[in-house]
Write a structure and sequence with these properties.
Blueprint (H helix, E strand, L loop, with lengths): L1 H21 E5 L14 E5 L13 E5 L7 E8 L4 E5 L2 E4 L2 E2 L19 E2 L4 E5 L17 E2 L5 E8 L5 E2 L4
Antiparallel strand pairs: 1-2, 2-11, 3-4, 3-11, 4-9, 5-6, 5-8, 6-7, 9-10, 11-12
Length: 171
């Protein structure tokens, strides 16, 4: 009996460690990342790689939404620390150069707070959804620029639907 109790406690402890430090399952809700990710997709989020390397441009990341408990956003990193980001005429400009993107569905109608250049500080990131006109992202005052400490992890594997199972491509 004591052996089973110890075994169950070890399993619970390992599960806690894996979910806290290695990876966790999350579900995509909404259309802000279409066509890359769709409403209802289930993903495994890699929570460990950013402990060993810096986030990169185009990484698809998960972070908590500050105004709603237990709500997480999934967006793509566009601007990196030290860069200047601006949205002009529907396009993203990094340090004055138009960003070459291949995954956005359409030109952005609303530049939001990025209508004027935004200078990113140390450990700050600018994120956008791929479905730009249907995404609440760094252009919105309620989301804004993200700090590195707020990044939970990087979208790693799509586990549902099975027809789309596989490693998520980050451009």
């Amino acid at each position: 009996m004591l052996g089973w109790l110890i075994y169950i406690l070890i399993i619970i402890g390992l599960t806690y460690l894996i979910i806290t430090f290695v990876g966790q399952r999350t579900r995509v809700s909404g259309s802000s990342m279409e066509t890359t990710l769709s409403d209802g997709d289930n993903l495994i989020v890699d929570k460990i790689s950013y402990r060993f390397r810096d986030p990169k441009r185009y990484d698809i990341i998960v972070f908590p939404y500050a105004y709603e408990k237990n709500t997480y956003f999934i967006k793509r990193i566009i601007g990196l620390p030290g860069e200047t980001v601006q949205v002009k005429d529907g396009y993203v400009y990094i340090n004055g150069e138009q960003l070459d993107e291949h995954y956005g569905n359409e030109l952005m109608d609303d530049p939001g707070i990025a209508e004027e250049p935004i200078q990113l500080g140390e450990n700050e990131y600018f994120v956008l959804g791929d479905n730009r006109n249907h995404s609440q992202d760094s252009r919105a005052v309620t989301v804004g620029v993200l700090n590195r400490k707020d990044l939970i992890g990087r979208a790693w594997i799509r586990i549902w639907p099975f027809s789309e199972f596989g490693v998520i491509k980050h451009e």
